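Exercise 7b. Backbone tokens:
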């Protein structure tokens, strides 16, 4: 498509369609519904893996299932993490590394990003909820648009502005990304 990461938008559309159809038409407990959606997501991963050699099109899809399971057992997870957070953090991280590495043969940089993401997720779970602020509301309202237009901002800064330093480019990309996302959000509304 026109957006280099439109595969991700298609992927999310499929997953939310799975979610909607299962939760709308399947008469079962929430756990069974979540497991059915997870099976559909897994089938999606198998199909996409057979169609492409680009691992990033499928290797993070199972996080959708993780999010549903975490949402389903949110209160239980919070109570366990508060009581046993150090043990859960260590065991969860080791288990995640083993599963990701052996089940999907993902490269080490992806493995490292999954590890860091898991650690950050578990640590953030221990922090009490942050009250909403205007800045949080603003960024949450444009986060999807920021994701969509970030490729445009990166291309503009790296190719047209000639900035070669990653550290110098990031603040400029962020500013352009926020402005473009805000404009797209306003037009979309």
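Sequence design result:
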């Amino acid at each position: 498509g026109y957006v280099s990461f439109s595969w991700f938008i298609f992927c999310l559309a499929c997953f939310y369609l799975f979610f909607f159809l299962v939760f709308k038409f399947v008469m079962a407990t929430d756990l069974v519904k979540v497991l059915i959606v997870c099976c559909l997501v897994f089938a999606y991963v198998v199909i996409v893996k057979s169609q492409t050699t680009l691992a990033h099109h499928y290797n993070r899809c199972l996080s959708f299932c993780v999010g549903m399971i975490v949402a389903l057992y949110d209160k239980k997870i919070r109570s366990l993490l508060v009581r046993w957070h150090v043990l859960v953090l260590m065991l969860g991280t080791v288990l995640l590394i083993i599963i990701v590495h052996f089940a999907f043969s993902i490269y080490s940089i992806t493995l490292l990003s999954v590890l860091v993401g898991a650690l950050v997720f578990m640590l953030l779970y221990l922090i009490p909820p942050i009250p909403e602020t205007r800045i949080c509301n603003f960024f949450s309202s444009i986060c999807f648009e920021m994701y969509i237009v970030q490729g445009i901002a990166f291309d503009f800064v790296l190719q047209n502005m000639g900035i070669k330093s990653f550290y110098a480019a990031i603040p400029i990309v962020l500013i352009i990304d926020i402005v473009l996302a805000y404009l797209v959000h306003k037009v979309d509304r």
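Instructor comment: The CA atoms of residues 31 and 72 lie 8 Å apart. The chain has seven helices and no strands.
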